[in-house]
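Input (structure):
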């Protein structure tokens, strides 16, 4: 039972952070602009740092590297929540972390607090049998990742087609 809950939380975290990273890369200008408002000249460095950290997190989730995945997820979520609370005055309670039209952008502070709680719960229930069942885990995460990239590419191609 612990393994199922643990793997389900991993799956949810992987999907959320992959979607976030994917949109930060595909729609980089929007995210860089958000960072530029606060950091000015260091916006590009901050952008690449966040993309690198989120990539590292996905790597840690994929290969089940504990405790790093929990610490990185917790730190990122805390940093984003702090940003939303203290620096994101122009957008109010919304962000563009998941692309312009994503429903995941609504209530980002509440979302991040819930995810911080989920990461904490997952860290506390690490099952010993989690190491044994990694093949199925890799297959599922790869399928989801591939599908999300495919959908993103199709959406981008449609946007390009509309501009022509």
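Output (sequence):
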């Amino acid at each position: 039972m612990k393994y199922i809950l643990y793997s389900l939380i991993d799956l949810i975290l992987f999907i959320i952070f992959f979607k976030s990273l994917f949109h930060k890369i595909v729609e980089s200008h929007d995210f860089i602009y958000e960072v530029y408002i606060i950091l000015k000249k260091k916006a590009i460095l901050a952008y690449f740092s966040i993309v690198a950290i989120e990539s590292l997190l996905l790597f840690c989730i994929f290969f089940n590297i504990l405790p790093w995945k929990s610490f990185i997820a917790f730190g990122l979520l805390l940093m984003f929540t702090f940003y939303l609370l203290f620096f994101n005055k122009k957008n109010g309670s919304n962000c563009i972390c998941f692309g312009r039209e994503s429903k995941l952008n609504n209530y980002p502070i509440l979302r991040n607090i819930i995810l911080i709680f989920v990461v904490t719960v997952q860290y506390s229930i690490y099952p010993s049998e989690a190491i044994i069942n990694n093949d199925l885990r890799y297959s599922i995460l790869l399928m989801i990742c591939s599908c999300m990239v495919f959908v993103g590419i199709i959406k981008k191609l449609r946007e390009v087609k509309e501009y022509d």
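Notes: The chain is about 75% helix and 0% strand. The two ends are 52 Å apart (CA to CA).
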